[in-house]
Structures are given as C-alpha cells and as structure tokens.
C-alpha cells in the first residue's frame, strides 16, 4: 500500500470539521479535488474512509483506524521537522492548540507575542473548545496541546498546572446584586445576563451548570468577548460572569460591582495537557516552558 502525507492531512481536516467543504479549504484544495483524493484513497485501500449523509461526513471504523495511525505519523513528522531546524533554515512547524475562552483571551496573548517573535517559522492553529473536548482532541491526536480548567478526565495524557483563576459575577452599580459581596449561582439565575456568544467555552460551561440546577440562563444580550460583556454590564444592561483576571484588568475605576461566586467550581485550576510533553517538538516544549514561567509564580 502507498500512503501519502497529504491524504493523512486531508482526512484529518475533514474529520475535524465533519464537513468535506471546510476540510478541503483547510487543506487548500477545491471540493472536487478533495473528493477525488478521498475516492482514490478508498479505492487504493479497498475500504470506505467516510460515511456520507445529509448531516455531513463521519469516519467509518476503518477510517478511524487510518486516521489514528496517520496522526501519529504526522506528529512524528512534526517532531522530525523540529529537530532538523537546528541543522537548517526555512523549515516550518505547526502547533495545534485547543483551549477554553479564558486561556485564549487572557493567558495566551502575552506569551504568544514573544514566542512567535522568537519562532517566526512556527504557525499556531488555536481553537476555542470546552476542556473535555480539548483533552479528547489531544488524546485523539487532533491537538498537540490543550489548555484546560476544572475537573475533567485526563486519562492517557500528561498535565502540568500553571495558574489559578476565579469566576466572579459583575453587576451594574445600581443592580440588586450590587448589595451582595457573595452569591450562589442559583440566586443569580433569577436575573438577566449579559453573556458570551453561544458555542463559546465559558458560555457552554455556565449553561451546563444552569441545567444541572434545572434552571435556564436568561440572556438579555450576547457579545463576542469578555471586554464587550464588561462594557455592557457597565452600561446597566444585566449581570455577567467572567474570570477575575479580566475584571482586574478592566475595573480600575470601579465602574461595576464585583460579587464572589459562592460555588466550588468558581475557582478553576488551569493546566496544560499533552500526550507526552517530552515527545512534543522543541518549539512546542519552549511554549510550554514560557506559559508556566509567566503564570505559575502569580498563582495564589
């Protein structure tokens, strides 16, 4: 059998998107070209790689086996590329990261700026995911590193703690919640929220906790980021829940009331997750070291 790295990447991209069109675009191929490559691959291997339906495409059992081994091969190629960088120039590396909202908006930007200046040859593919989804991506080989929080199963991976952050409630200064220094999440659910967009990791996290209480999260306005949520709360539109690290950055003039969330899940440990940190390319190991150095000493 003949195996092609381009086929491995194409199958991986289509599987991650569950969509031929988006997978083809990520592979820089037209849809007809991608479809033909998959047909040729299936003919050569004598198996069906994908099941096609009106909802999109999904891997068959044989396709999952093909992709599992393909991702291992691609990971080894990345590692080889990283090692060869010490002996040549012009080689590029790619690092796939999946992280929750806070990690992407608060923890990563200060570190990534310096990292990419020192590693101009590295491309970062960073996607926002819930922590359990990010761990699963690392375990399946779809991501090199996950940045997670909370108590999610991490079997089959290595984790390294680097920070701690609390979720707090913020309210307009004339809001009923502004009379309280501490509140249960269930009590807050009696009010209208300013929230992140549906699908964001933090928004889904809060929605899950509301459902566990058999309550609905009453959302008055949704916004694309924590900064926008803060400004809308400041304008008196509703209350919000966001990481304390964001509030400390934005509330220097005390324009909103900050209320402690009296919930065990409100304090979250942030961890880096990988299949094996020592097996990561050298540039990825450098990023891990930088993240830990930047935040570990600041954690309470």
UniProtKB/TrEMBL annotation:
The keyword Transcription applies. PROSITE patterns: HTH_LYSR (PS50931). Keywords: DNA-binding, Transcription, Transcription regulation. Signal peptide: none annotated. Pfam families: HTH_1 (PF00126), LysR_substrate (PF03466). The keyword rRNA-binding does not apply. InterPro entries: HTH-type_LysR_regulators, LysR_HTH_N, LysR_subst-bd, WH-like_DNA-bd_sf, WH_DNA-bd_sf. PANTHER family: HTH-TYPE TRANSCRIPTIONAL REGULATOR YBHD, LYSR FAMILY TRANSCRIPTIONAL REGULATOR. Belongs to the LysR transcriptional regulatory family. This is DNA-binding transcriptional LysR family regulator.
């Amino acid at each position: 059998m003949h195996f092609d790295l381009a086929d491995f990447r194409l199958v991986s991209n289509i599987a991650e998107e569950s969509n031929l069109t988006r997978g083809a675009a990520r592979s820089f191929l037209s849809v007809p070209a991608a479809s033909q490559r998959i047909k040729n691959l299936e003919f050569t291997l004598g198996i069906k790689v994908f099941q096609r339906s009106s909802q999109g495409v999904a891997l068959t059992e044989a396709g999952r086996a093909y992709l599992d081994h393909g991702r291992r091969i691609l990971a080894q190629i990345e590692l080889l590329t990283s090692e060869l960088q010490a002996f040549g120039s012009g080689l590029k590396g790619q690092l796939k990261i999946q992280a929750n909202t806070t990690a992407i908006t608060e923890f990563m930007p200060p570190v990534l700026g310096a990292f990419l200046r020192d590693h101009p040859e590295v491309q970062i593919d960073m996607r926002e995911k819930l922590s359990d989804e990010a761990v699963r991506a690392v375990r399946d080989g779809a991501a090199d590193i996950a940045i997670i929080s909370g108590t999610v199963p991490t079997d089959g991976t290595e984790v390294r703690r680097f920070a701690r952050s609390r979720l707090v409630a913020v309210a307009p200064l004339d809001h009923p919640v502004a009379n309280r220094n501490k509140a249960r999440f269930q009590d807050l659910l009696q009010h209208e929220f300013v929230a992140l967009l549906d699908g964001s990791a933090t928004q889904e996290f809060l929605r899950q906790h509301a459902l566990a209480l058999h309550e609905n999260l009453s959302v008055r306005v949704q916004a694309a980021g924590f900064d926008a949520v803060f400004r809308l709360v400041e304008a008196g539109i509703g209350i919000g829940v966001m990481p304390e690290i964001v509030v400390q950055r934005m509330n220097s003039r005390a324009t909103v009331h900050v209320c402690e969330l009296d919930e065990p899940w409100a304090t979250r440990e942030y961890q880096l997750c990988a299949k094996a940190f020592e097996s990561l390319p050298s540039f990825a190991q450098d990023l891990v070291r930088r993240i830990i150095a930047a935040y570990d000493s600041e954690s309470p």
